[in-house]
Amino acid sequence: MRRRRSDLWILGGLLAFALVFILGATWLGSKERARYALDPLPPLDAAEAELVSALMILTPRYPAGLAWLRAAAEGRAGIDERLAVDGLRTAVIRVLQGRPEEAVEAARRGLSENERDGDLHLVLGIALEKTGDPAGAAVAYVRADRALGDDVDILFALARLHLSMRRYREARDYAERLVLKAPRYAEGQRVLGESCLATHDMGRAKRAFNDLLQLRPHDVAARERVKFLDGTR
Description:
Shape: elongated
Largest sheet: none
Strand content: under 5%
Structural class: mainly alpha
Order of helices and strands: HHHHHHHHHHHHH
């Protein structure tokens, strides 16, 4: 009789332990989901979106470029020459005009006067990419990173460029830095997801694409990636 009671106590203890474990895991899971809840950033206006797309960065950081785009949209001629008063502004506007070779020259002229200007190195890298010189662009981006450090646009440029060059581990390192600093940029999550896929870390890739879907619920490419990672595609 005592043995049966002892067995019942053991069974009851095991059941209680299992219940506590399940409840604890559920609570931790809800805390983890809350921790990674991401709200989208405010939307960009038309000129800001065009600038970001043309320069392949995340933020509309160049007021002169925005002014030129808005003036061009309104049909105001000659505004580029009034705005292009220094190397950085000239380089930005030349990239927006589709004249990357001239942008390279303008950026290099500016750097000859101030070689520590991180923004000039960034725009030089963008222009070199557009001229078909990814190796030169990588050097410029690294110098921009050294000058400014943990800048979201530079980290994105480095991650994106290394991914395109199939340097997947380097791409992931920069993407991880980017997402750690600024997780609410959808394209940052995308480049991290693609880098993790390329380095065969499927769990981290899925989390990145799910975070991207929090920011852009209707992103078809991200949804397809999640389906692929779930094995349902």
